What we know:
alpha+beta, General stress protein, Stress-Dev_Protein, 5 helices, YdaG_split_barrel_FMN-bd, Split_barrel_FMN-bd, Pnp Oxidase, Chain A
Amino acid sequence: MKEEKWTQKEKIKKIIALTKDIKIALFTTIAPEGIVTRPMVTQQTEFDGVLWFFTFEDTAKIEEIRENSNVNIAYADKKDTFVSIRGTAEVVKDDAKKEALWNKAYEAVFDTHYDDPKLVLIKVQVESAEFWESGSTLKTAFRFVTNMLGKDHKDLGTNETVEFDE
Length: 166
């Protein structure tokens, strides 16, 4: 693949375009026994290099983040687009931010309100994002088979990694 120079604005636009309609992310942390992945809902905000998630403070993922803040968030859609985001997570206790991100539907999911002191936010500062766009299921399958056979494949989609500036 040829290396492309991306502006910060282009990086942000690309990640928005790839993930905006994907509601559930796979959120991976590092636990003492190894990596742990769980589904989580990304909060709908104007993406600026930061992702937000709601959770309760007394969960294993919060302890894992406090021990090791390196995380990965993965997205996949039905159109054969895949995004893997590497970043650093931190726990945020900010009622104003929770209220700004809160959706009334969360009251049923979390069985609480945004100002519950046990409800916290996870803020992920994105460091890099790798994405794959094949354009079709057939291309994805063909790429998989040719990779397994050690053969080269031509123009079967896009695979790029973008680094985010701090």
